[in-house]
């Protein structure tokens, strides 16, 4: 049984992990990793959290908040990320976002087997893009009761020329030459605003979430661009969806205190404009002073995030469960 296969987790005694083997892909053997918070509250409500790009699950405070509100907490390190990154693999590498669906299938199957009947699917940034697409077409999408998207990656934060010309061209090349390296062009200042070693308050494993994001290639770009095209055309997610984002995007160049109160990765205007296309039951909430990962914002801001989130969940989820 799944209960007996959990092992100690890198986050310490309050968490445990379950390795979920997957069929090999174009790079060889593949696994994903389900992390579970111990001391689960009574009931059958649960959340499954999916991280962003150059990222993994480390947010202990987030897990504690969900548990305090009566939710069992689970997080998924996708294939080639964090706990699931194997030595022979290119970190974060993907050629089609559907490659992540078996990871989500396995995690949701395990959660259902453990008695979780009302499941919230949550994703941050690239994870938000992935779970939105999964909620549209994933095999176990009917087991999801609601979605919470934290600053979802719905469009490239690039110039009009790059978004309309350069990225589509590179994505087309990615169909035939997926391993061609590309500059990631993401500032290291965002990571500096998070980690204790620099300007932030959080401690996490820098080899899994480095300041300078992992290199990307044309295959990855094609996968993301295809996902963005699907968002732009519109989805029809049936479940209620909550999208949260900051009220502004960082505009300063180089290190700035602005990273503590604005999105340092994405253009919040894109999130605001594209979110209604996810389905007929989308709520969009703007969080003043929010960072890119809203739950890593300053204490007063993340308190607002949790207040808005759990009020919304209380309104949209069934009263039993």
Automatic annotation (TrEMBL):
Domain Serine aminopeptidase S33, chain residue ranges per copy: 45-294
Keyword Hydrolase (UniProt): yes
Source organism per UniProt: Hymenobacter nitidus
Gene3D superfamilies, per the entry: alpha/beta hydrolase
Keywords: Hydrolase
Membrane-spanning parts: none
Pfam families to which the protein is assigned, alphabetical: Hydrolase_4 (PF12146)
A single MF term (Gene Ontology): hydrolase activity
UniProt protein name: Alpha/beta hydrolase
Record has Hydrolase as a keyword: yes
Cross-referenced InterPro entries: AB_hydrolase_fold, Hydrolase_4, MAG_DAG_Lipase
